[in-house]
Amino acid sequence: MPDSPLLIVVRLSESFSDVWSKLASGVGARVATVAAGGADGTRGAAAIVLAAGGAEREALDWLDRQEARADVPTFVVGSDPSRRAAAQAVGHGAADYFALPDDIEILSNALSGAVARHREAASRASAETSAADLAAFQTIVGESPALKDVLRRATRLLRHAHGAALIVGETGTGKELLARAIHDGGPRRGAPFVPVNCSALPRGLIESELFGHEKGAFTDAHAVKPGLFEVADGGTLFLDEVDTLPVDLQAKLLRVLEDHEIRRVGGTKSRRVDVRVLAASNASLEQAVQRGVLRQDLYFRLGVVTLVLPPLRERGGDVTIIADRLLASLAAHHRLPVPKLTGKARRALANHAWPGNVRELKNALERALLLSPPGELDLAELVPVPAPHPGPSGTIPFPAPLDAITAAAARVMLDLCSGSVSEAARRLSISRRRLRRLAQADRTTPGYPSANGTTGTI
User: Fold this and answer.
1) If you write DSSP's letter for every residue of 382-402 in order, what string do you get?
2) Strand partners of residue 265
3) Which long-range contacts (CB under 8 A, 24 or more apart) does 318-324 make?
4) Given phi > 0 = left and psi -120 to 50 = alpha, else beta, which region is 375?
């Protein structure tokens, strides 16, 4: 019975050694027999039994040395049937005293009651834990099996204060929302949750932003500045688009994850930090490792637990469930009546690919809410019909320099993905940062074709 409650029998004498297994089996428990000094760890036990037949004095001494616990009763089992022996045992902290063989049935009933109370307490604690776990993820809406599987894995991570995780998913799938739920539902709740978009940090200041700097460390360092690791001390640091960090800084990040110490730029003293690091990316990190833009050892360290958020197009009926929730929130925000999603609207939502995922869905609903009559949703505003894209022959120059072809192809892919940088980068198997550079070159270089097939400076 590996999951049965535990009875700890402390052997102060060899009396009654043949009864414990039978008693435990009769009350649905398992038994562990230990020597007099071996019952320090009582967590998880339903009861402690002092086997003291002929050693009643030693039982009193044992009780005096222990710190009584209300949730784990201690029963003294001796061979002296006198009231004086029972009164002394209870006076020294025992829950009750039984003299064998006469009190064997009463002892069995007492053990049965202790086991039942233990089961009830365990069941109540489990229910409270489950309720807390569910509450932590109540902001993440959906009933699809793909989403439920991710949340089940995340639930197991909640109680581990130092468990690192890598959250992977397309832009708009809710990676920061999941990271915040893990923080809010875990033992670090109440401490800071610090989100950082690594791709938005100025390259020359990334190290200073993360680790801080001392006064005079560089030209503009007029005062000491704690880094984001110090700001998040005791809580959670969420590193979004972690694969965009420079490779040389990745080595320093790895050292912090291993040693739990940071050193400010320009400083000589290491500072210990207690931070749970959750990282995220919308790209294939395996490919990032292969391309050399992400250190393999950092990838393995961050990805101790990997949570893959499915795109909205793979979540079936979750689209309309999320839409209902978002409409209620958006309508309240704009002080408008909540419109009803008609059957046509639901079908239109379900049939759209949503390359921007939940973020795109929210934007579409807000646009339709603002541009439709109060209490209604204009279907044309909800899911606009995309304008036809010109064919490749009209948008990609050939013959032309390779960089011109590459830049034009980036613009075409952006158009095909309705402007979603993340989706276009994913299809091209390049980073978002590289895609932005290509798109910018296409817009500004004379002679490069634009998305509508014309040439010139755009």
Assistant:
1) HSPPPPPPPPGGGTS-SS--H
2) 213
3) 318/141, 318/142, 318/143, 318/144, 318/147, 319/349, 319/350, 319/352, 319/354, 319/361, 320/346, 320/349, 320/350, 321/141, 321/142, 321/143, 322/141, 322/142, 322/358, 322/361, 323/349, 323/361, 323/365
4) left
Q: What is the pTM of this model?
A: 0.60
Query: At a CB cut-off of 8 Å and minimum separation 6, what does 41 contact?
Result: none
Three-state secondary-structure class, residue 259: helix
Reported as a single tens digit per residue, the pLDDT across 110-152 is 999 899 888 888 777 665 555 555 567 888 889 999 999 999 8
Closest to 349 measured CA to CA, from 374, 311, 376, 321: 321
Contact 59, 50 (CB under 8 A): yes
Amino acid at 364: A
CA distance 407 to 427: 15
Peptide bond into 310 cis (omega under 30): no
- As given in the structure block, the two tokens for residue 7 are 């009875």
User: Given CA atoms 84, 88, 89, 93 in this order, what sign does their dihedral have?
Assistant: positive
Amino acid letter for position 285: L
Candidates 138, 277, 257; CA nearest to 195 is 277
Which pairs from 114-118 meet CB under 8 Å and 24+ separation?
114/46, 114/47, 114/73, 115/5, 115/7, 115/27, 115/28, 115/29, 115/46, 115/47, 117/46, 118/5, 118/45, 118/46, 118/47
236 φ/ψ angles, rounded to the nearest 5 degrees: -130, 135
**DSSP per residue, 30-67:** EEEEEETT-----TTEEEEEEE-TT-HHHHHHHHHHS-
- Which of 106, 19, 10 has the alpha carbon at shortest distance from 58? 10
First to last CA, the chain: 74
- What sign does the dihedral 389-199-189-333 (CA atoms) show? negative
Inter-residue contact 183 to 193 (CB < 8 Å): yes
What residue ranges of the chain have pLDDT lower than 70?
1-3, 37-44, 67-70, 125-135, 384-395, 397-400, 441-458
Tens of pLDDT along 421-457? 877 887 887 888 888 888 776 554 433 333 333 333 2
